[in-house]
């Protein structure tokens, strides 16, 4: 069951990244900022979906409640980040904000994976090596 969930989430993450890229280019079609705003909120939603899928796999494979706590803390940080940044910089570029959020979520996901212990002597035995990182140095 864990293998099935991992495979479904892995391909779902690929689809989310494809949709994110398509939506980023689709937003360039609009001339007004109001029309672009919907695309950027959709991109933020896809970013949160990417992070949720990744942490779901880690939580299932690790069977550790701390992973859920890390996920909640990161999601809270990103929501506060979006609200505070938009409040402080009202004329900020929304595309830049959406892309920064995606890069930060990828960084958070990779950081959590890199903190997990190996289960064998080679990276092939790493429980999340099929998801995102093919190799982690010792």
Key structural traits:
single chain, 138 residues, mainly alpha, 4 helices, 73% helix, disordered C terminus
Summarize the structure.
The protein is mainly α.
Shape, please? globular
- Derived from helix and strand composition plus strand pairing, the structural class reads mainly alpha
**What oligomeric state do these chains adopt?**
single chain
Q: Poorly predicted ranges (pLDDT <50, ≥5 residues)?
A: 121-126, 131-138
- H/I helix tally: 4
Percent helix:
over 70%
Number of strands: 0
Distance between the termini: 30 Å
Order of helices and strands: HHHH
Radius of gyration: 17 Å
User: On the 0-100 scale, what is the average pLDDT?
Assistant: 80
Largest sheet: none
Q: What proportion of the residues form beta strands (DSSP E)?
A: under 5%
